[in-house]
Structure formats: structure tokens, C-alpha cells
Amino acid sequence: IDAGCNVGLFVQRIRSIPGLENVRIVGIEPSLRNCKVIDSKGFGNFELLNLALVGQGPKDREKVIMTEFVGEKKPDGTNRYHQWNNIYGNHKDKVSDDVLISEYEVGVITIQEVIDRYAPLGNIDFLKMDIEGAEYEVLEGLTMQTAKQIKQISFEEHDDKKNQEVKDTLRNLGFSVEQYPGKEIYAWR
To answer: Residue 113's CB: how many other CB atoms inside 10 A?
Structure first.
């Protein structure tokens, strides 16, 4: 599972590793712009969900507001700041006035719903999350039953205080946890 798959660079990298060319990957990306870029790449054995991954919150939350940042075009065809897109409205104070900020509703999905839909008889081998702060909500809401269906988790860190809390949560759910330089936390069984 590649949650926050942005423009598909992780999927592209996985596809370049011998033996993983055809592994099944589900990408979760709330940005409409990023989804268009991913779709243009034509990945095989890949399903893209234009949704936001969220925690196990109340069922009345069917949509969230996506904030998308669009700066000038970069040489790779993406717009500057596209990697800052998020569902919390973060980063608005960090961009200049010439950056287009658009907001729109996007549907949501929980990790348990992903498992029920894509791995009902098995496990998620690897859950990669780069979802601009929503990682904490997703991981803090994991139940033991859901956690047992995930073999490995890698996620970008955003908040030192929350990092310790979520590492403790993951350990309590049976994961070994390591924090790496470069703002990455990795958990495995």
C-alpha cells in the first residue's frame, strides 16, 4: 500500500527492483493533480484510489477537505509544492502569494477498509505512508486485529512529541520500531 503516493515515484522504484516488477500495489492519493500524473504512467498491477487515508474516526466523516498547492512547473512536469498537498490545510503560511491554493472535498478510506477490500484473505506486506501528518491519526487508531494484518510500516515523521507516542503504540501492537535519520520511522513484525 502506498498511501500518499504523490506522483508515483515509490511505485516506479518498486517496479525497477528485480522480482517486484509485478507485485500488486494499491496507491492512495487525494490530490486530483497527482492522480492525473500517476495515471499517465500506466503502471501495471496497480490500483489508484483518489481518496485520503484517515484513522478509524466516526463513520459520519465521509469526506475531508484537500488543500492543494500549485506553483510553477518543474522540469519533471509536476508543479512546485505539489508534495505539500494535505487534508489538514498545513503549509498555507509557508508559500508566497503567487502559489495557487485550491481546496476541494475528497472521499476517505481507513486502513481497515483497505485491508477488507484488497487483502481480505491475507496481509499487507508493506504499508508506506507519506500523508503529511495524517500518519499519526491512522497509526493511533490501529486495533490489534488490524495491526496483525500488516507486516511492515514505513512513514514520514512530522512531530517529535507524536513520534514517541506512535512508536509506543506500535510497540504495544507487536511491532519492532526504528527511527531513521531523514525523518522516517520503520516498524516490522
So the answer is: 15
Bridge-based pairing of strands 100-110 and 52-54 is parallel
Rounded Cα gap, residues 42 and 46, in angstroms: 9
Cβ partners under 8 Å of residue 145, min gap 6:
none
Residue closest to 36 by CA, chosen among 5, 63, 71, 69: 5
DSSP string, 38-83: HHHH--SSEEEE-SEEE-S--TT--EEEEEEEE-SBPTTSSBTTGG
Give the global pTM: 0.90
DSSP structural state of residue 95: S
The answer for residues whose C-beta is within 8 angstroms of residue 19's C-beta and 6 or more apart is none
| pLDDT 10s digits, 118-144 | 887 778 999 999 998 899 999 998 999
